[in-house]
Write a structure and sequence with these properties.
alpha/beta, Rossmann fold, 5-stranded parallel beta sheet, two-stranded antiparallel ribbon, 7 helices, 7 strands, disordered C terminus
Amino acid sequence: MLDELVARAHRLVPHDGRLVLGITGCPAAGKSTLAALLVTGLRQVGVPAALVPMDGFHLSDAALDRLGRRDRKGAIDTFDGDGYLALLHRLRTERHRTVWAPGFERDLEQPVAGTIAVDPPVRLVVTEGNYLLAEAEPWPAVRALLAEVWFCQLDDDVRRDRLIRRHVEFGKSPAAARAWVATVDDPNARLIGAGRDRADLVVDMTALGPADGNASAPG
């Protein structure tokens, strides 16, 4: 299955220029896993590829405190969607110099500017994030900059179990983790899942094995 997905991504690579492939899905469905596997697979067949997650556009805790949104970190309005859109445009058009993208420091649970370098030879950028198929602004404009968007599908009970374990790993008590999943992650998942039928491809993540345990809890 992975070989087929890498081959499909490979076919997207233009003869001249650079494209961006989007990977989306509900929290803990395996977006980070699939995106990383694709970039590795593409590089193995000689395609210069880069991974740029959306996580770097989380609003900082200080910003979330000011907006009163920290208690639902990971919701669609806790990301800088316009900043992400601007980066995607630069990735598509600025091919002759390095474009720097923000990353996400998992120990701090904070975005960190200028940590991911996308160098001029890169032909395909793989980006992964929750809201690539959302209908609220600016996400339709985000979708318009993506060559394709693939939706990671995983059984909801499996996802919730992974989310609870992930939240506990990052410091929540089991009870607090279950509460967060019920009040924050599940509503986010319903919003994300509403875009499934707009995806170019639905990927059954069960066939690819466990999701990346290092993915950030909010996303």
